């Protein structure tokens, strides 16, 4: 999804006060911080209290990240606090998984709410009491019109509304009676609603007798069958929590009048609503409805698909929260709506990772190179970061068989091609110069290998001792030590910068026509052997594959523990990287997922997902059984298998999973034991146990094009 860096045209007035500004630089002020400074200076408020109030009906996206940075960031800047509140006022669309996901995302972004975690539903008793107060003041009534009639009679911005026949039909006592019947569940869902009595001819349509509360069917898990509308619950919740500045996006601009009307009518603590322009990004959709359509229609693999703009997707994609905060800071806070070029987001990620991600080599489309004059392999010192000598070196063997990118060779190149070609030389990154002397082809005429010679006098040379020079430099990998990996290149999900933009004579769903069919390209390539060592490459921390981009490990399915008798199917919607690890702790009395029977490891119970971080504990518990299984398997496998494994110094076990058989390789070093293990999603990739560390064979990797 990340694209090549281009100059971004950004319309923004000033920078946002980030939660943790990059580099310790003080963030410039914006109109929100200026308001707060003035309120503190005049004594209007003694401290600043903001809030982040998402509805738990979906996953947070990049637009929410801006709000997180603003609300938590400003509170931190002024030594105040930011409340975390769930506006759980719509029981038909809310789920516990959304609450868990939102809490994780806000914490990941750096938001800290301390003990100030609230739910609007906690205030329902007070909101009900205030609703009765409005009825007693003659400012609210129970309406038995259907919702369709209420919408029809509301009018438009050019036509006044029409009063409901129930507006003045009941006395205060009768309205209270009907409202209490709503509370007790005596009315069917949608049979009646409570409405504020304001002005049906008001030019602001929002103030035309808005609905305060609706009746829902009773559910045993709910104490309430009357649920307040967002516009009613929101401002009063702010008042209850003594929020000083209620910051929201511009689509609530017209709602501010109703926000103020309720607080004035109820004579409660007044709070101030302030709006800012929401974040819009090119080549992206942030509408929950359209994101849901992309998931349900299987255009993407789930809510954490790296092509989406959800925070769980960005996290899985390897985007650090610091890069998102830096982006929000550069975008700034303004009142005027604008659309930010996605190139600016790409640039923030690239600049952030370029200073932090270790460099390694990877080859996505390997072409075999045979060095015909190399007598023995040697180990070369490769800079971890060519821009930072203090980062030190890594070791990489240089052997007589190498992989290079297939696109780095052309048999008959154009004049401006400076990589490897027949009879020409090229520089291998941090290694020697090689010259292609011959090309090997198969029966179809396809190139299978290059026969090359290397110049031993050109190690890390910009010019050879005899004065000759080369223009091209390419990366490489030693075949003997290269680790197979699936490399996933993600591009933009849409082909047009404004995918939601309506076009003449096109249906509303035309945004679907702009979906990029090539947004994901998968290669079966190779990476350096230490890339998949978790100690050097922690989960979701990117590595920079030189000349390819930034990549991060992906483990969409890990499986270990199962509680007997329970349904242990994996929760839909996100990979286990994106789920709360606490939900996958080993339960009390849980059984391992395999039994040892005659050297065969088989299922003991249905499998349950578990993050890689928990696999270590599992194999620590079960190492004896696995080692014994591996020994018996080797003995039963016969001389051919035993000879193959003895050459590698390993024996094999066999863990059977829902995905199929999963190979287990165990070092034969006496007393070494098993340190830890991490499993990949696909059974075609083995799991290797390595003494003193962790190693993935064929770990799934994912990367970003154009970085």
TrEMBL record:
Family: Belongs to the class-I aminoacyl-tRNA synthetase family.
Organism annotation: Cyclospora cayetanensis
Domain Glutamyl/glutaminyl-tRNA synthetase class Ib catalytic, residue spans: 48-354
Transmembrane segments: none
An MF annotation (GO) of this entry: ATP binding
GO biological process: glutaminyl-tRNA aminoacylation
Catalysed reactions, semicolon-separated: tRNA(Gln) + L-glutamine + ATP = L-glutaminyl-tRNA(Gln) + AMP + diphosphate
Gene3D superfamilies: HUPs (3.40.50.620), Ribosomal Protein L25, Chain P (2.40.240.10)
Protein name per Swiss-Prot or TrEMBL: glutamine--tRNA ligase
KW DNA-binding (keyword) present: no
GO cellular component, one term: cytosol
Domain tRNA synthetases class I (E and Q) anti-codon binding as annotated: residue spans: 473-554
EC number in record: 6.1.1.18
InterPro entries for this protein: aa-tRNA-synth_I_CS, Gln-tRNA-synth, Gln/Glu-tRNA_Ligase, Glu/Gln-tRNA-synth, Glu/Gln-tRNA-synth_Ib_cat-dom, Glu/Gln-tRNA-synth_Ib_codon-bd, Rbsml_bL25/Gln-tRNA_synth_N, Ribosomal_bL25/Gln-tRNA_synth
Keyword Cell membrane: no
Species classification: Eukaryota, Sar, Alveolata, Apicomplexa, Conoidasida
Keywords: Aminoacyl-tRNA synthetase, ATP-binding, Ligase, Nucleotide-binding, Protein biosynthesis
Stretches assigned to the Glutamyl/glutaminyl-tRNA synthetase class Ib anti-codon binding domain: 357-455
Top-rank taxon, per record: Eukaryota
Family matches, as PROSITE patterns: AA_TRNA_LIGASE_I (PS00178)
